Amino acid sequence: MTHSQRPPGAGHPRKDPGAIRFHFVTPEVLDLVWTGYISEASCGQYPAQLEHLLASRRISYAIFDALGVSGFSADSRVAGGRMLAICKQAGARRVMVVTESGPIRMIGSTVALATGMSIRFFATRSEALGAIEQHQREE
């Protein structure tokens, strides 16, 4: 992993296996919390879990919280792209990505463009939640 792929403040590259935790903030807002070193090997099983979770549900928004990501491999875009596509199929109009990492923003933008999903980036969860609340008021 090169220095450019490490989120700021990550120090030395850490290879803790990546993980993704799902929970609903509200019935229409799904939160996906990404932690550790994200790769297809560590996170490839999560799209199927997300698909199962959303099989009979509709969502309006998803929050991809990447503050706990210690790094990522290039193949992480595969799982990320599948997750964005699943959220889109479940009705998400926009995904809010929480990160201060430039490289995560770059790979997120690339994956969003490939899937046709609208995403916005925020430095904090509270900013992302505030943007969702504002968007809901404007609807």
- State the helicity in percent bands: 25-40%
Rounded average pLDDT: 89
CATH topology: Transcription Regulator spoIIAA
Tally of individual domains: 1
N→C terminal distance: 42 Å
Strand/helix succession: EEHHEHEHEH
Explain this structure to me?
Helix 2 runs parallel beside helix 3. Residues 6-12 have low confidence and may be disordered. Helix 4 links the parallel strand 4 (94-98) and strand 5. This protein has one domain: Transcription Regulator spoIIAA. It has helices at 40-43, 46-53, 76-89, 102-115, 125-138; strands at residues 19-26, 29-38, 61-72, 94-98, 119-122. The protein is of the alpha/beta class and 139 residues long. The protein is built from five helices and five strands. The termini are far apart. A five-stranded mixed beta sheet has the order 1-2-3-4-5, with helices on both faces.
List keywords for this structure.
28% strand; 5-stranded mixed sheet; 5 helices; 139 residues; alpha/beta; single chain; Transcription Regulator spoIIAA
